[in-house]
Amino acid sequence: MRSRKPPPTVSPPAPSALEGFFKRDVLAGISVALVLIPQSLAYAALAGLPPVYGLYAAVLPPIAAACFASSRYLQTGPVAITSLLTLAALSPLATPGSATYLALAPLLALVVGCCRLAMGLVGAGLVAHLLSQPVLMSFTSAAAALIMASQFAVVVGLPASPGQEIAQLPSLLSHPSAWSPLALGLTALTVGIISLGRRVHPLFPGVLVAVVLGILGQHWGHSALALVGPLPTALPHVGLALDFTSLRALLLPGLVIAVVGFAEPTAIARTLATQTRQAWSADRELISQGMANVAAACAGAFPVGGSFSRTMVNRLAGGFSRWSGAVTGLAVLLFLPFAGVLAELPRCVLAGIVIAAVLNLFQPRALWRIAVVSRAQGLVAWGTFLLTLGLAPRIDQAVGLGVGLAVAVHLWRERRITLGVSFDATHAELRLTPVGVLYFGSANVIEDALGAELVKNPQARRVVFDLRRVGRIDYTGVLVLLRLVEDAQLAGLEVRIIAGEAPQGERLLRRVFGAQANVIVRN
Fold this sequence. Notes:
- This protein has 523 residues and is an alpha/beta fold.
- The protein has two domains: 17-361, no CATH class; 416-521, STAS domain (Transcription Regulator spoIIAA, 2-Layer Sandwich).
- 59% of the residues lie in helices and 7% in strands.
- The protein has helices at 17-46, 52-56, 60-68, 80-90, 99-121, 133-150, 152-155, 169-173, 181-200, 206-221, 247-276, 282-298, 308-316, 323-335, 347-358, 364-373, 375-390, 395-415, 443-456, 475-490, 503-513, and strands spanning 75-77, 305-307, 418-424, 429-438, 462-466, 470-473, 494-498, 520-521.
- Strands 3, 4, 5, 6, 7 and 8 form a six-stranded mixed sheet that branches.
- The relative contact order is 0.16.
């Protein structure tokens, strides 16, 4: 009896773009907005701005980013690290919360946006890889520690001067009797709800639950906790009426924010693109994030970036396309007239939201592992970590110094080129075989070795430079070789250079050697 084959399984057809938008993008966008609204208030306060500026930064930027993004999941808006970098850039120029400070914030957003746009238009998406993992991880960990420390005054219910929260930390720690147990408890409850909610399910609205409980607790308990206060319900004024007087002072901090703040969305988008097998372009994402920051400047807000937590909410909620980000911005826009419902939200709840958002970014164990695996990279990691803490609030300078430290360690390690030396007495041939990278920092090793070996072997009549194990050679390295060849020939020695396998290295050798190129052979 012939067995009957089971019918082939037919996968359901993929929804059309319009159907996917209404069935999935709208739901995902609204889900993200429920998280973004309270987060935006907290991140604006972290940046030294009134909370309502966070809502302004959550309206136009996600819409602008959606128009140009290559990732279908990446969610744009206020983020913790960028907010702290904003405070670091603006606090030396004006008092946080002052009129001058509020005017500088959109100018900084414009600088960040223009930097990212320029990098994207010239195809410089690889800039995201310029920050080594030890630098990025240590900076992020130190920034997370600073962010949590900056929230301490709010957590214990004590006032703090804007922008001086970290400087006042020793004074706050020395007076525990003045702390508010209610503020401490409400902050701990907020962090606990958000953290445990993530374990229950990634879509659990922990932030929303914490906000609702905070408002209800304040309303029923009539406590004396510091509140968010009245929030303007008017739509943000759109325009670019900016004062460019301080533009020069914001160029370098803006560039740092543009590069550092792009590292996180790049990692998010690249990872999700790999998991879902979707096309992704770093250059397009730079343009997308650049336009988002220009939109933030037009709304009078502050620099924005890609959020890991909200991006994951978007994906898990079923986001179908990049237009879910536009839905998020529209949802926040529709909420603005009703923003007054958050006036009675205790500020310690906002502090708990910030702490919960950056808690996982603090990774001292990972930094310790780097030091165990590689002492050199451990030096880079812990050096950047300590620089970030020591230079606070100017942590933008710590990024530059960390990159410089990483480059210095890299150059020092590449300088340690290995040189194999052999002498064939039968043919009176001295052979030098460098292994590694032959560049301006290591070329002198060959120069010193040649002189020493000729003293040891005065009977040598021929010198061979075997470059087949050189990974790369730069212009200075070739010039040093040319000088050595000329000096050896003047001493009556025959010279040969065995070129490596890399064709660009042989081309550089022949161009620089010119008439002397006859000394270069393939074997």
